[in-house]
Amino acid sequence: LLLAELRTHRLRGELAGRSEVLRWLVCEKYWQSGYAAYAAMGGLALAILALYHAIVIAKNMTTNEHICDYYTRNPFEASCAQNYRDALCRPCGREMSIVAYTEPKRPNQVADKV
Fold it and tell me: Average pLDDT, stretch 72-77?
């Protein structure tokens, strides 16, 4: 929105040079300029975090293992594609098999049949 407004002012000829654009951004649109800078820094931080986790997933390590440098060679590392497949497509937690449920027998039931 800020850039669209800036473009409109430039097309009208109200802001001719860089110094006028800078004055307009700092003096008249200081709140929007500050927010745009804050959002850009937040977006950059998020991009760096995403890149770091992409690298950690490719190496098949946890953040703690990567920071503490546990392995000289990671014994769990497979190919990059296999590491991504394991991290993104494999279910987490313990594996559960589907078994038919049977009612547990109580001790007094066995004694009643005799």
Answer: 79
Q: Contact 6/21 with Cβ under 8 angstroms?
A: yes
Polymer length of the chain = 114
pLDDT by residue (tens digit) across 7-59?
Answer: 777 766 777 777 787 787 778 777 778 888 899 999 999 999 999 999 999 98
Number of Cβ within a 10 Å radius of residue 15: 19
Burial class (CB in 10 A: 0-12, 13-18, 19+), 87: middle
**pLDDT on residue 79:** 87
SS3 at position 60: coil
Contact in structure between 57 and 84 (CB atoms under 8 Å) = yes
Residues 78, 76: Cα–Cα separation, whole Å = 6
State the CB neighbour count (10 A cutoff) for residue 29: 15
